[in-house]
Amino acid sequence: MKSGHCEPELVIFDCDGVLVDSEILSCQCLSEALGECGIPLSLEQALQLFLGRSAIAVKQHYRELGQRIPETFLAELKVRVLQRFRLSLQPIPGVGALVAGLQTPFCVASSSDLDRVSLSLALTGLARYFGDRIYTSQMVAQGKPAPDLFLHAAAQMRTAPTRTLVVEDSVSGVTAAKAAGMTVWGFVGGSHHRLHDGRSMLRDAGADRVFDRMANLWSEE
Predict the structure, then answer these.
(1) Count of the separate structural domains present in the chain
(2) Residue 14: pLDDT over 70
(3) Domain closes at, from 61, 88, 115
(4) Same domain for 169 and 97?
Protein backbone atom coordinates (compact mmCIF):
# COMPACT_ATOMS: atom_id res chain seq x y z
CA MET A 1 0.00 0.00 0.00
CA LYS A 2 1.02 3.62 -0.28
CA SER A 3 2.15 5.79 2.60
CA GLY A 4 4.43 3.19 4.12
CA HIS A 5 1.92 0.31 4.34
CA CYS A 6 2.49 -3.23 3.06
CA GLU A 7 0.68 -4.38 -0.06
CA PRO A 8 -2.83 -5.59 0.84
CA GLU A 9 -3.89 -9.22 0.68
CA LEU A 10 -7.55 -8.20 0.34
CA VAL A 11 -9.41 -5.18 -1.02
CA ILE A 12 -12.91 -4.53 0.34
CA PHE A 13 -15.02 -2.16 -1.73
CA ASP A 14 -18.06 -0.36 -0.43
CA CYS A 15 -20.83 -0.48 -3.05
CA ASP A 16 -22.85 2.76 -3.09
CA GLY A 17 -20.67 5.67 -4.15
CA VAL A 18 -17.63 3.45 -4.75
CA LEU A 19 -18.69 0.83 -7.30
CA VAL A 20 -21.95 2.44 -8.42
CA ASP A 21 -22.88 6.12 -8.57
CA SER A 22 -26.01 5.67 -6.50
CA GLU A 23 -25.89 8.02 -3.53
CA ILE A 24 -27.70 10.98 -5.09
CA LEU A 25 -30.38 8.65 -6.51
CA SER A 26 -31.02 6.92 -3.18
CA CYS A 27 -30.94 10.14 -1.16
CA GLN A 28 -33.38 11.76 -3.59
CA CYS A 29 -35.71 8.82 -3.00
CA LEU A 30 -35.31 9.16 0.76
CA SER A 31 -36.06 12.89 0.64
CA GLU A 32 -39.17 12.27 -1.46
CA ALA A 33 -40.44 9.42 0.72
CA LEU A 34 -39.98 11.34 3.97
CA GLY A 35 -41.65 14.37 2.43
CA GLU A 36 -44.71 12.24 1.73
CA CYS A 37 -44.71 11.37 5.45
CA GLY A 38 -44.64 15.07 6.37
CA ILE A 39 -40.96 15.07 7.32
CA PRO A 40 -38.88 17.61 5.38
CA LEU A 41 -35.37 16.48 4.43
CA SER A 42 -33.34 18.06 1.65
CA LEU A 43 -30.97 16.11 -0.58
CA GLU A 44 -28.01 17.77 1.12
CA GLN A 45 -29.35 16.86 4.58
CA ALA A 46 -29.96 13.28 3.49
CA LEU A 47 -26.35 12.99 2.33
CA GLN A 48 -25.04 14.56 5.52
CA LEU A 49 -27.09 12.41 7.88
CA PHE A 50 -27.36 9.05 6.16
CA LEU A 51 -24.53 8.61 3.66
CA GLY A 52 -23.10 5.13 4.08
CA ARG A 53 -25.71 4.05 6.62
CA SER A 54 -28.50 1.50 6.36
CA ALA A 55 -32.18 2.24 5.84
CA ILE A 56 -32.84 0.95 9.35
CA ALA A 57 -30.64 3.78 10.66
CA VAL A 58 -33.07 6.25 9.07
CA LYS A 59 -35.99 4.80 11.00
CA GLN A 60 -33.98 4.75 14.24
CA HIS A 61 -32.95 8.38 13.74
CA TYR A 62 -36.51 9.64 13.49
CA ARG A 63 -37.78 7.37 16.25
CA GLU A 64 -35.22 8.94 18.58
CA LEU A 65 -36.53 12.38 17.54
CA GLY A 66 -40.07 11.27 18.37
CA GLN A 67 -41.21 11.44 14.74
CA ARG A 68 -43.43 8.61 13.59
CA ILE A 69 -42.66 6.79 10.36
CA PRO A 70 -45.19 4.29 8.94
CA GLU A 71 -44.40 0.60 9.38
CA THR A 72 -44.45 0.23 5.61
CA PHE A 73 -41.88 3.01 5.07
CA LEU A 74 -38.74 0.92 4.61
CA ALA A 75 -40.39 -1.53 2.21
CA GLU A 76 -41.88 1.30 0.14
CA LEU A 77 -38.57 3.17 0.13
CA LYS A 78 -36.78 0.05 -1.13
CA VAL A 79 -39.23 -0.30 -4.02
CA ARG A 80 -38.78 3.37 -4.92
CA VAL A 81 -34.99 3.13 -4.83
CA LEU A 82 -34.82 -0.03 -6.93
CA GLN A 83 -37.14 1.50 -9.52
CA ARG A 84 -34.92 4.59 -9.69
CA PHE A 85 -31.83 2.41 -10.03
CA ARG A 86 -33.34 0.49 -12.94
CA LEU A 87 -33.89 3.78 -14.74
CA SER A 88 -30.73 5.71 -13.91
CA LEU A 89 -27.98 3.77 -12.11
CA GLN A 90 -24.49 3.96 -13.60
CA PRO A 91 -21.16 2.43 -12.52
CA ILE A 92 -18.45 4.67 -11.17
CA PRO A 93 -16.26 5.59 -14.19
CA GLY A 94 -13.31 3.24 -14.55
CA VAL A 95 -14.36 0.74 -11.91
CA GLY A 96 -15.13 -2.04 -14.38
CA ALA A 97 -11.63 -1.93 -15.86
CA LEU A 98 -10.16 -1.75 -12.36
CA VAL A 99 -11.84 -4.86 -10.96
CA ALA A 100 -11.44 -6.77 -14.24
CA GLY A 101 -7.67 -6.42 -13.92
CA LEU A 102 -7.32 -6.59 -10.14
CA GLN A 103 -4.94 -9.37 -9.08
CA THR A 104 -5.49 -8.93 -5.33
CA PRO A 105 -8.51 -10.82 -3.91
CA PHE A 106 -11.48 -8.49 -3.44
CA CYS A 107 -15.09 -8.37 -2.25
CA VAL A 108 -17.84 -5.88 -1.47
CA ALA A 109 -19.15 -4.92 1.98
CA SER A 110 -22.19 -2.65 1.98
CA SER A 111 -24.71 -1.11 4.35
CA SER A 112 -27.40 -1.76 1.74
CA ASP A 113 -29.31 -5.05 1.77
CA LEU A 114 -28.32 -8.00 -0.39
CA ASP A 115 -31.12 -7.50 -2.93
CA ARG A 116 -30.09 -3.91 -3.56
CA VAL A 117 -26.37 -4.67 -3.83
CA SER A 118 -27.01 -7.61 -6.16
CA LEU A 119 -29.26 -5.52 -8.40
CA SER A 120 -26.78 -2.62 -8.41
CA LEU A 121 -23.93 -4.88 -9.53
CA ALA A 122 -26.11 -6.60 -12.13
CA LEU A 123 -27.41 -3.34 -13.63
CA THR A 124 -23.89 -1.94 -13.97
CA GLY A 125 -22.24 -5.08 -15.36
CA LEU A 126 -20.11 -5.64 -12.26
CA ALA A 127 -21.80 -8.74 -10.84
CA ARG A 128 -19.58 -11.19 -12.74
CA TYR A 129 -16.48 -9.83 -11.03
CA PHE A 130 -17.79 -10.30 -7.47
CA GLY A 131 -19.70 -13.59 -7.63
CA ASP A 132 -20.91 -14.47 -4.13
CA ARG A 133 -18.28 -12.31 -2.40
CA ILE A 134 -20.97 -9.86 -1.25
CA TYR A 135 -21.34 -8.99 2.43
CA THR A 136 -24.04 -6.71 3.85
CA SER A 137 -25.15 -5.23 7.14
CA GLN A 138 -27.90 -7.87 7.32
CA MET A 139 -25.17 -10.39 8.14
CA VAL A 140 -23.87 -8.72 11.31
CA ALA A 141 -25.19 -7.38 14.61
CA GLN A 142 -24.25 -3.76 13.92
CA GLY A 143 -23.73 -1.97 10.64
CA LYS A 144 -21.32 0.86 9.88
CA PRO A 145 -19.90 2.87 11.67
CA ALA A 146 -19.34 -0.25 13.84
CA PRO A 147 -16.51 -2.47 12.56
CA ASP A 148 -18.61 -5.66 12.45
CA LEU A 149 -19.26 -5.78 8.71
CA PHE A 150 -15.66 -5.28 7.64
CA LEU A 151 -14.43 -7.81 10.19
CA HIS A 152 -17.01 -10.29 8.92
CA ALA A 153 -15.96 -9.76 5.31
CA ALA A 154 -12.27 -10.19 6.12
CA ALA A 155 -13.01 -13.35 8.11
CA GLN A 156 -15.03 -14.81 5.25
CA MET A 157 -12.17 -13.98 2.88
CA ARG A 158 -9.68 -15.48 5.38
CA THR A 159 -7.57 -12.34 5.61
CA ALA A 160 -6.24 -10.51 8.67
CA PRO A 161 -7.67 -7.00 9.18
CA THR A 162 -4.15 -5.55 9.21
CA ARG A 163 -3.62 -6.91 5.68
CA THR A 164 -6.89 -5.50 4.36
CA LEU A 165 -7.51 -2.33 2.37
CA VAL A 166 -10.99 -0.77 2.39
CA VAL A 167 -12.21 1.68 -0.26
CA GLU A 168 -14.97 3.90 1.18
CA ASP A 169 -16.80 7.11 0.29
CA SER A 170 -18.51 7.90 3.60
CA VAL A 171 -17.50 9.01 7.08
CA SER A 172 -19.37 6.07 8.63
CA GLY A 173 -17.53 3.65 6.36
CA VAL A 174 -14.12 5.17 7.07
CA THR A 175 -14.88 5.09 10.81
CA ALA A 176 -15.90 1.42 10.58
CA ALA A 177 -12.78 0.42 8.67
CA LYS A 178 -10.44 2.20 11.09
CA ALA A 179 -12.24 0.61 14.05
CA ALA A 180 -11.64 -2.76 12.37
CA GLY A 181 -7.91 -2.07 12.26
CA MET A 182 -7.79 -1.80 8.48
CA THR A 183 -6.20 0.65 6.09
CA VAL A 184 -8.88 2.76 4.40
CA TRP A 185 -8.70 4.96 1.34
CA GLY A 186 -11.44 7.54 0.85
CA PHE A 187 -12.95 7.78 -2.62
CA VAL A 188 -14.51 11.08 -3.69
CA GLY A 189 -15.25 10.38 -7.35
CA GLY A 190 -18.99 9.82 -6.89
CA SER A 191 -21.33 12.60 -8.06
CA HIS A 192 -22.56 13.22 -4.49
CA HIS A 193 -19.13 14.49 -3.47
CA ARG A 194 -19.58 17.49 -5.77
CA LEU A 195 -22.13 18.80 -3.27
CA HIS A 196 -19.71 19.07 -0.35
CA ASP A 197 -16.03 18.87 0.58
CA GLY A 198 -15.71 15.12 0.78
CA ARG A 199 -11.93 15.14 0.92
CA SER A 200 -11.79 17.03 4.20
CA MET A 201 -14.57 14.96 5.78
CA LEU A 202 -12.95 11.64 4.92
CA ARG A 203 -9.50 12.79 6.02
CA ASP A 204 -10.93 14.07 9.30
CA ALA A 205 -12.63 10.70 9.81
CA GLY A 206 -9.26 8.98 9.53
CA ALA A 207 -8.83 8.00 5.88
CA ASP A 208 -5.22 7.09 5.17
CA ARG A 209 -5.49 8.53 1.67
CA VAL A 210 -8.15 10.25 -0.46
CA PHE A 211 -8.44 9.91 -4.24
CA ASP A 212 -11.03 10.75 -6.91
CA ARG A 213 -10.42 8.46 -9.89
CA MET A 214 -10.54 4.65 -9.91
CA ALA A 215 -7.72 4.65 -12.45
CA ASN A 216 -5.57 6.15 -9.68
CA LEU A 217 -6.30 3.49 -7.07
CA TRP A 218 -2.71 2.24 -7.06
CA SER A 219 -0.97 5.49 -7.94
CA GLU A 220 -0.28 8.60 -5.87
CA GLU A 221 -2.22 11.67 -7.04
Answers:
(1) 2
(2) yes
(3) 88
(4) yes
> Residue 159 has what pLDDT?
98
Judge whether residue 110 has pLDDT over 90: yes
Give the domain extent around 62: 23-88
67 and 109 fall within a common domain: no
| Under 8 Å between Cβ of 190 and 169 | yes
Over 80: is that where the pLDDT of 53 sits? no
Give the list of residues 6+ apart from residue 112 with CB closer than 8 angstroms, or none: 15, 16, 54, 55, 120, 136, 137
More reliable by pLDDT, 39 or 192: 39
> Do 80 and 130 share a domain, yes or no?
no
3-state secondary structure the chain: CCCCCCCCCEEEECCECCCECCHHHHHHHHHHHHHHCCCCCCHHHHHHHHCCCCHHHHHHHHHHCCCCCCCCHHHHHHHHHHHHHHHHCCECCCHHHHHHHCCCCEEEEECCCHHHHHHHHHHCCCHHHHCCCEEEHHHCCCCCCCCHHHHHHHHHCCCCHHHEEEEECCHHHHHHHHHCCCEEEEECCCHHHHHCCHHHHHHHHCCCEEECCHHHCCCCC
Of residues 146 and 52, the one with the higher pLDDT is: 146
This prediction has a pTM of 0.87
The CATH number given to whatever domain includes residue 125 is 3.40.50.1000
